[in-house]
Amino acid sequence: MALVSLLFHDHYLTYLRPDFGVLLAMAAAMLTAMVFAVCRHQGSGITTRPPDVRVILIFIAPLAHLFMSLDVPLNASAFVTRWTGFHHETTSTTTTTPDQRDHPKTAPHHNVTHIQLIRNAAHYQDQDVSVMGILFRDPEITDQLGDHHFVLYRFVINCCVADAMPVAILVNGIVPDEWPDDTWVTVHGRVNTGVWDGSPYILIAAETMDRAERPKRPYLLAR
Amino acid sequence: MTSHISTNDDRTRTNHHSAASGFASRATSGTGRRFWYYTSLLLIIGFIAWPFLTHHHAMWPTYSLLFTGIVLEALPFMLLGAAVSGIIEVYVKKEWLLSRLPQKTWVVTCIAGGLGMIFPVCECAIVPVVRRLTRKGIPFPAAIAYLLGGPIVNPIVGFSTYWAYGNDIRIVAIRLLSGYLVAVAVGLMMGRLFKNRTALIDSVHGDEKHSCACGHDHNHDHASPDGVTKTRRFLGAIRHASDDFIAVIHFLIIGAALAAGSQTFLNRNLVLALSDYPMLPEFAMMALAILLNICSEADAFIAASFRGLVPLSAQLAFMLIGPMFDIKLLLMYRTVFTRKAILALSLMIIGMVSFVIGLFNLIGVMIR
Hints:
The complex is a heterodimer of chains A (223) and B (368).
Chain A: H1 2-8, H2 20-42, H3 53-68, H4 76-82, H5 98-102, E1 110-112, H6 114-119, H7 121-124, E2 128-136, H8 139-145, E3 149-157, E4 165-172, E5 184-196, E6 199-211, E7 220-221
Parallel strand pairs in A: 1-2, 3-7, 4-6
Antiparallel strand pairs in A: 2-3, 2-5, 3-4, 5-6
Chain B: H1 10-21, H2 30-54, H3 59-91, H4 94-100, H5 105-113, H6 123-135, H7 140-149, H8 155-164, H9 169-193, H10 218-221, H11 227-265, H12 269-273, H13 280-292, H14 299-304, H15 312-321, H16 327-332, H17 339-367
Helix pairs in contact in B: 3-6, 3-11, 5-7, 5-9, 6-7, 6-11, 7-9, 8-9, 9-17, 13-15, 15-17
């Protein structure tokens, strides 16, 4: 029942990549078949020993945690423990990709994702873009660059939240105090690049910022 | 729910229940057993109540999210593994299987180490499959080789590694070849150390009259070709699948609970602090793989995120050890092996991976 509910309301997207919907549907079907087979066997009058109550409780544990985390995607606490810096992200090479064909240089403020920006950093240099992400005021960055700098991050997943990796860009702009960390924000501004601790990073000089609704699919996909 | 006993084979019944409950054999004395029972019961109840008590805290909803995510990710694969296991039990005759295997154990072991290329399985799905194959009598070293090699030496993992490392085929070749060598070597060493299948727990020992623990012989009773029997055989396969699923799933859940703790609270920058010392990054990355419990199909992306921060050998150590040995697997191995065997297996895996990584570093130095 929990699996079916997760599927019908797309809640599973908080935990898994979208392709897992099919696998979860298969899992629900297989579990139903198992329950049917076991019930049919028990109905044939064969005596069985009841299972250990602890085993039943262990089965319930994920349901309790599921219930309490349904609409809580990964947030700043996960960002802090997983973030290892800008080191591996940006590439200076410009290649012809579908992303670029979709967003020609002349288009003003075209919507891009963190992955598009990072993979095509040189291409977007000095371009006006709109990027959606999660706001985080990193104390180390504000100490070094000033109060008007913050991190706009997303998580990239391959299978599930366990393998989620943060990708982040820096933003230079004034954030209203009433916007706490972990607020979803869309930043409109111009792309620049810089170097932080010897690693290249992307900086957006924000012209405007809007609060955004958390997207239905909160994570970007690695592939 | 966990069993369906239809004969007087008491030994089989006892064995089956001990595997299914997973707790029965843990305490020996009456007082100790009661203490363990109530302590574990309280811990489980506390764990269920915990998210309701701490939902306002910043970290704990993340913990719940990660715990649930790990269980949900593994669930379909484990069910698939259990289904394959049920099919093997009912439709594959022990005699047929054994007659088709090469006579020499080392040959079977070498084949089993690379079997994942034909039957790709992830580490969650492989445990019930190996559990059932072992009951069917495949040589113990071969079972180990498939258990360790299957989740690494397979095309899906090869593809994800290729993708994660920017289409570098060399990393794929090094990973798969190293994984194969470690799997076969550990399989053969375990076979030498544990003669006569003494590493297996009773319920998977496979020396009872019937390979199946439900008390009747599927290999004969259900061989009749009429339609009713076919239905019964099919339902029997599903029942066996459910038995295997139940026997393993609670270990997965406990493992996921521990892994989610590491995922939530362990800061990955700790690994980077060790990167200036020789061999420490390798061991730190191995420890990270053991604690994080990431699926073998996704771990290359995590390893690749450490490029430029730790040496390639440390990234390789992470990708080798994770699919063979982590917290979740350590608990799931309890459904197949004795504690002594798990200890030996863990040490051998760590030892062999360290040896391969050392060799990799040595070759790197020689080339330079």
